[in-house]
Amino acid sequence: MPLTAPPPTIHRLTRADLPKSTVALARYLIGKTLVHDTRAGRIAGRIVETEAYLVGDAAAHSFRGMTERNRPLFLERGHSYVYFIYGNHFMLNISGNRDGVGEGVLFRAAEPVEGIDLMRRHRAMPASAKLEDLARGPGRLAEAFAIDRSVDAIDMVDGKSALWLGTAVRKRGALGESVRIGITKEAERVLRYYERNSKFVSGTNKLNA
């Protein structure tokens, strides 16, 4: 029988590990690990693409103030914010500032490292499908990681949540940055970050140059 590599060792990040600036957090998360311990097993992936959304940012869900829906964005940095969009998929974000400040980071893409069969099952993808297509783009990422409103407002760095942030499983590549994707308001702002030369990143070749 062929040998299989053991799962990577991943340690939980703490709130003290997270930068206090949302932009710095979006950059910091590139190369770190997103983990979801589901009933069916662990799903983990290297975060390879993020976008920051800030105070006064017309593209941010927090732009018009706090509502019941966007309340998690106003929690202390490290809490999940999950919303449903276009009537067919969820998006996963993390709050990025101090309590009461509505800023966040969108998880745009991940490189699968553990629980790949589960990811394929969640996305209804055959074993022959390309690995890089499993979690490339925020909708695909949420589906692959079994993200829905049940994990909204979870503290991802409290040391006990099922959805959490972990240390890098290997050294991160060079960091790239660009304008954000798929928005019309303040679309010119350079607030998207990604790992250069990663085949798991979304976006066009021009954006990822």
Based on DSSP secondary structure assignment, what is the total number of beta strands? Answer: 8
Helix content: 10-25%
Radius of gyration: 16 Å
CATH topology type: 3-methyladenine DNA Glycosylase, Chain A
Oligomeric state of the chains?
single chain
Low-pLDDT stretches: none
> What structural class do you assign from the helix and strand content?
mainly beta
Notes on the protein architecture:
This protein has helices at residues 22-28, 116-123, 138-144; strands at residues 33-38, 41-53, 80-85, 89-95, 104-114, 163-166, 175-179, 190-195. With 209 residues, it is mainly β. It has a single domain, classed as 3-methyladenine DNA Glycosylase, Chain A (Roll), CATH 3.10.300.10. Strands 1, 2, 3, 4, 5, 6, 7 and 8 form an 8-stranded antiparallel beta sheet that branches. The protein is globular, with a radius of gyration of 16 Å. 44% of the residues are buried.
Give descriptors for this structure.
209 residues; mainly beta; 3-methyladenine DNA Glycosylase, Chain A; 8 strands; globular
Task: Give a short overview.
Helices cover 11% and strands 28% of the residues. The protein is mainly beta and 209 residues long.
SSE layout and pairings?
Elements: H1 22-28, E1 33-38, E2 41-53, E3 80-85, E4 89-95, E5 104-114, H2 116-123, H3 138-144, E6 163-166, E7 175-179, E8 190-195
Antiparallel strand pairs: 1-2, 1-6, 2-5, 2-8, 3-4, 4-5, 7-8
